[in-house]
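Thread amino acids onto this structure.
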């Protein structure tokens, strides 16, 4: 018993005193350049995510809400729906998985009050807990403490370090001064990020298998169920990706069948835009150029909204 108590005291000392000390040291100029897993809270310093939430906070009562990863906020331009007379907001964030989608739905659904939801469903975002998205969100949100429930799902230490860093120092990125954006990006009101990048030749990729995690599936189905019960019309879609990337996925049929099964279960529309021919306009494996976005959006509207039935 005494041995157990001594171990407990030692562990308490490490967690409560030593660990925060390491995080503090990692903030020291010069030292932070060599710290691998400490104080890497939002190297993007808010960027387009900060602007998007700032934008969302002053938006309400829209027709269509867009959810998903960077393929959503870089791939679906709200301006493309102007001809339909629809008020659209894109709430996509980098690496957004169903777990982060649920958090954002809880925060914004009532205020935005959308009639319909267009949800980008990338099987890749089901394969992990969403470290990138978590770091992106806690760097710009004042309510970051409400995201603590996500921490047990992460297999790497970085999200925990970043959360403790924010908890200890309570710094909110991008609240003052210049917002840091990639020089190739332009934030467009309504949540969209337009790129200036040109199409690139995508090198051949090794074969991969995208194994969707059960807990992400459960969250996905739970969120979908709640939207349907609110009488919100839901459209699920997979964004087009480069042929090189699409061909590298070994189990794409299994993932497609799962999403199709859930879509049928909840009686919502689902379409995989990799099943039709679009221009090969990608600046990396999964992101479209400006011309590619325009072509994709025309096709998306044709498939889902040709009759403006919302």
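Threaded sequence (310 positions):
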């Amino acid at each position: 018993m005494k041995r157990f108590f001594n171990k407990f005291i030692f562990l308490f000392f490490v967690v409560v005193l030593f660990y925060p000390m390491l995080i503090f040291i990692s903030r020291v100029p010069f030292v932070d350049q060599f710290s691998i897993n400490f104080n890497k809270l939002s190297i993007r310093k808010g960027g387009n995510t900060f602007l998007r939430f700032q934008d969302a906070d002053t938006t309400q009562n829209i027709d269509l809400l867009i959810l998903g990863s960077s393929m959503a906020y870089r791939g679906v331009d709200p301006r493309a729906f102007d001809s339909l007379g629809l008020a659209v907001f894109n709430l996509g964030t980098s690496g957004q998985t169903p777990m982060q989608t649920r958090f954002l739905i809880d925060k914004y659904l009532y205020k935005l009050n959308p009639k319909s939801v267009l949800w980008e469903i990338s099987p890749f975002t089901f394969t992990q807990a969403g470290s990138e998205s978590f770091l992106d969100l806690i760097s710009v949100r004042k309510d970051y403490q409400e995201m603590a429930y996500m921490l047990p799902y992460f297999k790497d230490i970085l999200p925990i370090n970043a959360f403790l860093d924010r908890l200890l120092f309570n710094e909110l990125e991008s609240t003052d001064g210049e917002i840091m954006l990639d020089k190739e990006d332009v934030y467009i009101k309504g949540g969209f990020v337009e790129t200036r990048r040109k199409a690139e030749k995508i090198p051949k990729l090794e074969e991969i298998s995208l194994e969707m995690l059960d807990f992400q599936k459960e969250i996905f189905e739970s969120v979908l169920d709640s939207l349907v019960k609110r009488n919100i019309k839901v459209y699920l879609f997979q964004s087009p990706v480069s042929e090189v990337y699409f061909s590298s996925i070994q189990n794409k049929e299994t993932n497609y069948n799962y999403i199709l099964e859930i879509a049928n279960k909840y009686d919502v529309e689902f379409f995989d835009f990799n099943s039709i021919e679009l221009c090969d306009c990608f600046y990396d494996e999964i992101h479209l150029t400006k011309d590619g976005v325009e072509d994709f959006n025309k096709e998306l509207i044709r498939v889902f909204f040709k009759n403006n039935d919302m």
